[in-house]
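Teaching soon. Got one?

===
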Amino acid sequence: MSAPPLNAAQADLDEVAGVVRAAGTSFYRGMAVLPPARRHAMYAVYAFCRMVDDIADDPAPLETRQPRLEEWRGRIAGLYRGEASDPVTRVLRQAVREYGLRQVDFEAVIDGMEMDAVAIVAPGLAELDLYCDRVAAAGFNHGQISRPDTQARQPPRTRIQGVSGEERQRDQACASIPVVEAKAFPAPASKRCTVPRETPIISPACSCLKSCPSHR
């Protein structure tokens, strides 16, 4: 009998695949066509991204979410010391060894989730570019993590500086679309608004921004 993909425990592989399947993402079926080792590595990367994103989006107070993100930062550091304590990190540890995934890319995802957790509001264009790099464009961040070969010559967290103007506008638009669809402030507790205060992508006259005090 052949060894399980990535030489990981089959129970861990099944657990991680279950996390991705339960998320209801279309990525699940797309990743399912990959060869087994790559498929399960991608499942683990996606599961990590999903879990830290869920922390950022949790309605719990910020002071309870930040320690949970820091805990994940410690888990990622542990991967590069050969440490793992749960199915996701155990499969990630094997993926790191097999594919040379970079610690800085995992950390950039957590940095982005921290930006999300503190509720970015009407950022300047430079801050929006950083948000796009860490949150909106990078993954969906699992894409950046899983392509260390194409990122090797570029400093972490500054890739956006090297993209074309058209690509930057696309990323800014992608970051703003969810806000526009949600009418900027879907609930009183929501304070996230990624439409930039400088040269807004959406006309300031747009009705979805009228309730946003940062764009008045």
